[in-house]
Specification:
Blueprint lengths: L16 H33 L4 E15 L5 E6 L6 E2 L4 E6 L1 H54 L5 H53 L3 E3 L4 E3 L9 E2 L6 E15 L12 E6 L2 E15 L14 E8 L11 E7 L2 H14 L3
Antiparallel strand pairs: 1-8, 1-12, 2-4, 2-7, 3-6, 4-5, 6-8, 8-11, 9-10, 9-12, 10-11
Length: 349
């Protein structure tokens, strides 16, 4: 049996395994290198070229809100709702207790009691003056008649005449004093009645506004984040809860200061929230500046940005309230069209 086997190494139809592995590895290295180079180039092109195509800035999804607070120091007894709860107008949100309100009502009641005591004193003085006024007038008439008779008589001594004149003066003083006391009592009683009524009205208004500490929702809406907690003490004016109106949703856009074109009312923008692209329109550019809470602090103080209000297009489903978004405003319609087409191609089906 012939054991000699001839291996044809130079046969072109038989691939060399070593060369095959080298060629495959070379293709992989070249592909990886090319991808890295083009990726870096694409990054720089997008990073430095994007500001020339569109204006981008951070924003926050917001809505009109109703802040619920009281002008007293309060302690929360209980809260029946939590953040994110949907409430109707008139629903009870919780109940509070206020020693300051109780002290205010007690002060009003003490004032009313003091007025009642003062009114009683004035009524007594007026009654006494009214009852003794007729007697004082009779005594005055008697002294005047006596004085008239003394003038017609030649036998009255000078001392007697002086005494009668003094008695007539005292009688006149008593009559005038009692008449003035009656008139002033009537005037002061009327004033005290008016003040007492005003104090009672204030007490009723304070009690009605406080409503025994029950907190009600002023509108239909959603309870915002961080409502007060049971047992928490709050200073006057501190929000107990905030109600957001889900029917009036918009985006607060912090427009960057570095921009090629000034945004105007009516400009179309694109709101980016995750993978979603929601079309919107600038409806108002506010004449104020502010700092976005999530802007990075690179060096020194944060730069303030002008604020614009963006409304979503009709029929669009807005993101959750208080969500952070990005807003893009393309400088040209062509750029906006190309970006929308590119996004449609890359978007998952």
């Amino acid at each position: 049996m012939n054991m000699n086997i001839v291996i044809e190494r130079l046969n072109p139809d038989v691939p060399d395994p070593v060369e095959s592995r080298r060629r495959a590895a070379g293709r992989l290295v070249r592909t990886t290198y090319a991808a890295a180079v083009f990726g870096v180039l694409a990054f720089f092109v997008i990073y430095f070229g994007a500001p020339l195509v569109f204006l981008s800035g951070p924003g926050t999804v917001a809505s009109s809100r109703q802040v619920i607070s009281l002008p007293y120091v309060v302690q929360v007894i209980n809260m029946t709702v939590k953040q994110g709860a949907i409430v109707k107008a008139g629903d009870q949100l919780g109940q509070v207790r206020s020693p300051e309100h109780e002290s205010l009502v007690a002060t009003y009641m003490r004032s009313i009691a003091d007025i009642a005591g003062r009114r009683a004193e004035l009524r007594i003085k007026g009654r006494v003056a009214q009852e003794t006024l007729e007697a004082a007038r009779n005594y005055l008439r008697l002294t005047e008649e006596t004085m008239s008779r003394i003038k017609q008589s030649d036998y009255a001594s000078l001392n007697f005449q002086i005494e009668i004149l003094r008695q007539r003066a005292l009688a006149q003083k008593a009559v005038v004093s009692q008449e003035a006391e009656i008139a002033e009592s009537i005037t002061q009683l009327s004033d005290l009645d008016e003040i007492s009524q005003q104090l009672r009205t204030r007490v009723e208004e304070a009690e009605h506004a406080f409503a025994d500490g029950r907190i009600f929702a002023p509108i239909d809406g959603i309870v915002s984040v961080n409502p007060a907690r049971t047992g928490q003490s709050l200073t006057a004016g501190t929000p107990i809860a905030e109600i957001l109106d889900p029917k009036d949703v918009y985006v607060i856009w912090y427009i960057p200061n570095e921009r090629l074109v000034e945004p105007r009312n009516g400009e179309n923008v694109m709101v980016l929230f995750g993978n979603r692209r929601i079309p919107g329109t600038i409806v108002d550019i506010l004449p104020v500046s502010s700092v976005h809470d999530q802007q990075p602090l690179l060096a020194g103080a944060r730069a303030s940005s002008q604020i614009a209000r963006v409304r979503f297009d009709r029929g669009e489903d807005p993101p959750a309230l208080n969500a952070s978004v990005k807003v893009h405003m393309f400088y040209t319609d062509v750029a906006a069209y190309v970006a929308a087409a590119f996004a449609n191609v890359l978007s998952p089906r």
